[in-house]
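Good morning C.,

I know you're traveling, so I'll keep this short. The sequence:
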Amino acid sequence: MARRVARRRGGRSSLQLVVPRDRTWLRHLAVALALLSLVTLTLAWAKPTQDVEVPSERGTIVVTIDVSLSMEATDVEPNRLEAAKQAASEFVEGIPPRYNVSVVSFAQTAAILVPPTTDHGAAVAAIQNLQLAPSTAIGEGIYTSLNALLQVPPDPENPDEPPPARIVLLSDGKTTIGRPAALAAEQAAAQEVPIYTIAYGTENGYVEINGQREPVPVDKLELQNVADISGGEAYEAQSAQQLNEVYEDIQSSVGTEEVPMETTSRYAGAGLVFAVLASLGLVSLAARWP
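The tokens, ready to paste straight into the viewer:
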């Protein structure tokens, strides 16, 4: 009888030493970690890549500003145009030095005030000298901005590869003359030039014409449509502070680009970590593979 008890105790003790019941989960975890290590190391061997955003070294920004008479409205102090000048100037000053900047204004017609250049001071000077004019031709402003991109100087290192381009268009009204803005946005999309629109002003804005108040509300839908068609983004600003924030957000967007980057080291590192954890699990178990 004592011998059978000793045999049972000895058997139970030996089994617990080999595969303790309360640590079975650790054995399976070690196997899972080993398999994960094998998978990640295999992926590392394949040299995977991933698109990541990095600061871009070059590009072209066309700053396109509405100078129609409605920009004289004082719902934004001191008026829409003066506040837009200040915000746009600060925006240009914050653009990376190697970027080309062009300035386009539009009202009844559109004009290239500064062709694409890395002389950002010239762009700021042109913005500060903007003058009001009648009518609003948003479509013509877009077409003229696209024409400005034809004057981008070639990159000496990559003469056959055009740099990425963006149009940043600010307007407070809607098209009253010229070609439709939607058609111009389609042309921008065909040339892979997204348009970032800024609907600027409040619903209560007005100007005085011949002693009478004329309301000049912002047409947000037209600008939203332009951004959607071209693949850009639409913003709204109802104050000078909001306009500054919009320009800052656009600045961070246009200052980066997506490039493929090899992520082999990431997968190899993960595989090594999984392998070490699996080894530690097996050592702690003091057992063979299942």
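Safe travels,
E.
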